[in-house]
Amino acid sequence: MHPFQTIAIRAARAAGEHIVRNIDRLGSLSIQEKGRNDLVSEVDRGAEQRIIEVIQRAYPGHAILAEESGQRDGEDYEWVIDPLDGTMNYLHGLPHFSISIAVRRGDT
User: Fold this and answer.
1) Average of pLDDT values for 11-32?
2) What pTM did the predictor assign?
3) How many Cβ atoms from other residues are within 10 Å of residue 64's Cβ?
4) What is the C-alpha separation between 18 and 84, in angstroms, rounded?
5) Cα 82 vs. chain centroid, distance in angstroms?
6) Dihedral (Cα; 87, 26, 12, 81), 10-degree rounding
7) Residue 57 DSSP SS3
8) Which of 34, 39, 48, 53 is most buried as measured by Cβ atoms within 10 A of its Cβ?
9) How far apart are CA 67 and CA 58, in angstroms?
10) What is the 3-state secondary structure (H, E, C) of 29-94?
């Protein structure tokens, strides 16, 4: 397994634990509307922070493009993160959501 894959899995597990821990709190979550049918919750932000922490511990010089917090400059590689892909489903209690993490080199 490639080291990037190992880190992505570790980051996804950290975010997943956060997401699952909060699933019983759906009625009391802080939710904001980013756009029409585009919501963000405190769970999205918390999951994203956990992903970023794992990545930065392993690769402090890499860039990050995260859905909720935006761009963090870096060198060579860029990690692209959607911490809770399917937020609307999650907030409605539907078990159809995922964590999306990718890494790319340069502009490719």
Assistant:
1) 82
2) 0.87
3) 22
4) 11
5) 4
6) 30
7) helix
8) 48
9) 20
10) CCEEEEECCEEEEHHHHHHHHHHHHHHHHHCCCCEEEECCCEEECCCCEEEEEEEEECHHHHHCCC
